[in-house]
Amino acid sequence: MSTPQIRALGRPFHVMVKPIGPACNLDCRYCFYLEKARLFAGENSPRISDEVLESFVRQYIAALPEAPEINFAWQGGEPTLMGVDFFRKVVALQKQHGAGRKITNAFQTNATLLDDEWCAFLAANGFLTGVSLDGPRELHDAYRRDKQGRSTFDAVVDAVARLKRHGAPFNTLTVVNRANSKQPLKVYRFLKEVGSTFQQFIPIVERVANPAAQALGLPLATPPGAAGAEDVAVTDWSVLPEDYGRFLIAIFDDWARHDVGQTFVQLFDAMLAAWVGQGGTICVYAEECGNAIILEHNGEVYACDHFVYPQYLLGNLRERPLTELAWSAQQQQFGRDKKALLPPYCRQCEFLFACNGECPKHRFARTPAGDPGLSYLCAGLRLFFKHATPKMDAMARLVQAGRPAAEIMKSKQA
Question: 224: closest CA among 302, 234, 40?
Answer without folding.
Answer: 234
